[in-house]
Amino acid sequence: MGIDYGDKRTGLAVSDPTRLLASGIGYISVGGMQKTAEKIYSVIKEQNITGGVVIGLPVNMNGTEGQRAEHVRKFSRCVEKILSGDEMTCRLPIIMLDERMTTMAASRYLNETDTKGTKRKGVIDSLSAQIILQNALDRLKNMKS
Known about the structure:
The chain contains four helices and five strands, in the order βββαβαβαα. The chain is of the alpha/beta class. Strands 3-2-1-4-5 form a five-stranded mixed sheet, sandwiched between helices. The model has no long low-confidence stretch (mean pLDDT 89).
């Protein structure tokens, strides 16, 4: 599962069974880090996620981590804590992946497809999560090659 965490909306994506293609499945907007982590736990159970969780880490363009990255790391620890309480999900690895340029790539795609307004807000978070997860899947594939 790919996650693009945000204070207002958190985009979600999953991969196909072969772990080759990521697909956005929407976003959640429940408010608050704990409630978002709890909702993600329920989505993990609903989607029967078995491979792992990839959370986008907002790294600065110069490679440093700022306040936003620390906030996302805190969120990641919150998700990990919730998953650790369940025998089925406690073994899911959670990794952080540099998400630089994913929102810009998602915006560029939405510009090209002329997606605007309210629809754009709902799509961009899921598309960003999809890009984050696809980047992770591609790295895994390249490691096996």
